[in-house]
């Protein structure tokens, strides 16, 4: 009995250590970008945002990159708008932003994968389902961003804890982490994985 109890305690300790270190801040001398993490409540998240009038909340993720193609620039702006809604865990806003993307893509060819993912976001009221569709949207967006920039940078960010530890990525205009897969639960969980120039 004591041996079983000791084994259970050791397993609990190991599991706790792994979960705490998977999204901790790393030392500055490590080669990879540091992992940012703070557990935050919803009201603390407001301090990290710039508010505008009405329900239009804008995070510090304004697009500074210049695109060679105006259509890609427009699609990327919609992508950022959807991401920001998911960071805020606002399913209704994510739906609205996805509908905007779909409206822009209706007449365009070669964007079917983006439109399909945006349609899944626009028809769901469940933020977790929207986040799964956003993962697909990110994968489709990546192919559009390759070689699309005229100037500036876009950061590919990654959270190892997303989707029950499978991990997933998203794009941002700033190095500062704002996690769309966890929102205010783990707002700063993630790291910069790559820079697109």
Written account of the structure:
This protein is an alpha+beta fold. It is 46% helix and 14% strand. The strands form three sheets. It has a three-stranded antiparallel β-sheet, with helices on one face. Strands 1-2 form a two-stranded antiparallel sheet. β1 and β2 (57-59) form a beta hairpin. α5 packs antiparallel against α6. The termini are far apart.
Which short descriptors sum up this protein?
two-stranded antiparallel sheet; globular; alpha+beta; single chain; 197 residues
| Count of β-strands | 7
Please state roughly what percent of the residues sit in beta strands, choosing from under 5%, 5-15%, 15-25%, 25-35%, 35-45% or over 45%: 5-15%
Percentage of residues assigned to helices: 40-55%
Strand order of the largest sheet: 6-5-7
Topology summary:
Blueprint: H1 2-21, H2 42-45, E1 49-51, E2 57-59, E3 66-67, H3 70-87, H4 91-105, H5 112-122, H6 127-145, E4 149-151, E5 154-159, H7 162-165, E6 168-172, E7 191-196
Antiparallel strand pairs: 1-2, 3-4, 5-6, 5-7
Helix pairs in contact: 3-4, 3-6, 4-5, 5-6
Briefly characterize the structure:
Helices cover 46% and strands 14% of the residues. It has 197 residues and is an alpha+beta fold.
């Amino acid at each position: 009995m004591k041996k079983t109890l000791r084994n259970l305690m050791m397993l609990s300790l190991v599991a706790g250590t792994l979960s705490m270190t998977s999204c901790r801040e790393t030392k500055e001398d490590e080669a990879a970008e540091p992992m940012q993490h703070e557990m935050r409540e919803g009201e603390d998240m407001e301090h990290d945002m710039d508010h505008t009038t009405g329900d239009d909340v804008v995070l510090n993720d304004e697009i500074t990159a210049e695109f060679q193609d105006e259509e890609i620039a427009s699609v990327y702006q919609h992508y950022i708008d959807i991401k920001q809604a998911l960071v805020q865990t606002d399913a209704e806003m994510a739906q609205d932003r996805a509908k905007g993307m779909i409206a822009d893509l209706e007449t365009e060819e070669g964007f079917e994968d983006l439109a399909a993912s945006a349609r899944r976001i626009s028809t769901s009221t469940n933020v977790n389902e929207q986040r799964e569709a956003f993962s697909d949207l990110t994968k489709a967006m990546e192919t559009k961003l390759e070689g699309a920039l005229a100037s500036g940078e876009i950061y590919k960010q990654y959270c190892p804890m997303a989707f029950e530890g499978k991990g997933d990525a998203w794009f941002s205009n700033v190095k500062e982490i704002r996690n769309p897969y966890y929102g205010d639960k783990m707002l700063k969980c993630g790291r910069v994985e790559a820079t697109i120039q």
